[in-house]
Design a protein that fits this description.
Pfam families: SQHop_cyclase_C, SQHop_cyclase_N. It comes from marine metagenome. InterPro entries: Hopene-cyclase, SQ_cyclase_C, SQ_cyclase_N, Squalene_cyclase, Terpenoid_cyclase/PrenylTrfase. There is one protein chain. The protein has a two-stranded antiparallel sheet. The longest helix is centred in the middle third of the chain and has 17 residues, at 137-153. α1 runs antiparallel to α2 (26-36), α5 (119-131) runs parallel beside α7 and α7 (190-202) packs antiparallel against α8 (210-221). The protein is built from twelve helices and two strands; from the N terminus they run ααββαααααααααα. It has a domain at 1-51. By secondary structure, it is mostly helical. A hairpin with a 2-residue loop joins β1 (39-42) and β2.
Length: 338
């Protein structure tokens, strides 16, 4: 395994092949076994995951369970919190090149990734750890402070946060012939920056804090003309909009301001007839498709979270969204995405 993610794994195997290593070499055998672990099979389908997301999933589950009323000292939650602490990245990675004075302390998305923590996972995890009542409080707070120091040091000049790096926004690199999906860069994004705002509010940061003030400006300045926000790490404008609204609300922004109402109207006007929301990946290429697509549980939930942040939890639009989720819950108590 290389970094727990498919592109690094496949490119490493290709590099070994072109360097003359045989398929039987132990490194190649182990590499192929790691790739095979990402395969998923369902009835007549077989597909490859880009990676798995144990830390991300665990942090989201923790926050969801605590939001749902599970005690913050429940044994299962304690076990998960201590596992997360054991996975903190304490080695120096490539982020150190542009951020030489910072010390490591974040968390990664995947298994087997000890060099590339990301700010998005770190924010979600810090949000969960803040509420968890772990037995060793001193250790928890010390590791959280270490993570917070690293995260704050990763802010870009424009006030936003990228996922892995600082000011990694030179667009010319996306024009080279080998630019993978034109995504060689890691520019500051609305979704990551807004989640960080949301998390910082839970740790007592206020809008007057210099770094928070810069991020608030970054989010407001990058709202689309129709009221939504772009989302890089979730599809797409529904994702960006829900996070922007929650980040702004968490930092005390008035949800009756014109920019907030414009975002709420955008969410409301993009609800599907069945009450849900959906958005196709093609929205990244075709702006007219933003907020359009078959309804999915995740995108419906994101839209609802945006409406709730905007003070519209009791409105008819939100009610129809909730009814969509209730109708489409499966017998296991979860939701399918296809």
């Amino acid at each position: 395994d290389w970094a727990g993610i498919q592109p690094a794994m496949l490119n490493s195997l290709l590099a070994l092949h072109f360097l003359g290593y045989s398929k039987e070499h132990p490194a190649c055998v182990k590499g192929m076994e790691a790739v095979d672990r990402f395969l998923l099979e369902k009835e007549d389908r077989l597909w490859m995951q880009a990676c798995v997301s144990p830390l991300w999933d665990t942090a989201i589950c923790l926050n969801a369970l605590m939001d749902s009323g599970v005690p913050t000292d429940h044994p299962a939650l304690i076990k998960a919190g201590e596992w997360i602490l054991s996975k903190q990245v304490v080695k120096r990675g490539d982020w150190k090149i542009k951020n030489p004075d910072a010390e490591p302390g974040g968390w990664a998305f995947e298994f087997y990734n000890e060099l590339y923590p990301d700010t998005d996972d770190t924010a979600e995890i810090l949000m969960a750890l803040n509420r968890l009542e772990l037995p060793d409080v001193r250790n928890k707070l010390g590791e959280c402070q270490r993570a917070m120091n690293w995260l704050l040091s990763m802010q870009s000049k424009n006030g936003g946060w990228g996922a892995f790096d600082i000011d990694n926004d030179k667009e010319v690199f996306n024009e080279v012939p080998f630019a993978d999906h034109k995504a060689l860069l890691d520019p500051p994004t609305i979704d990551v920056s807004s989640r960080i705002l949301w998390m910082l509010s839970t740790w007592g940061f206020k809008r007057e804090h210099p770094q928070v003030a810069r991020t608030l400006k970054f989010v407001k300045d990058n709202q689309e003309l129709d009221g939504c926000w772009f989302g890089r790490w979730g599809v797409n404008y529904i994702y960006g909009t829900f996070l922007a609204l929650n980040g702004l609300l968490a930092m005390g922004e008035d949800m009756n301001q014109p920019f907030s109402r414009k975002a709420i109207r955008w969410l409301e006007t993009h609800q599907n007839e069945d009450g849900g929301w959906g958005e196709t990946c093609q929205s990244y290429e075709e702006p007219s498709l933003r907020g359009r697509g078959n309804s999915t549980a995740s995108q419906t939930a994101w839209a609802l979270l945006g409406l709730i942040a905007g003070g519209e939890a009791k409105g008819d639009v939100a009610k129809r969204g909730v009814e969509f989720l209730l109708r489409n819950q499966n017998e296991l108590g979860t939701w399918w995405e296809d």
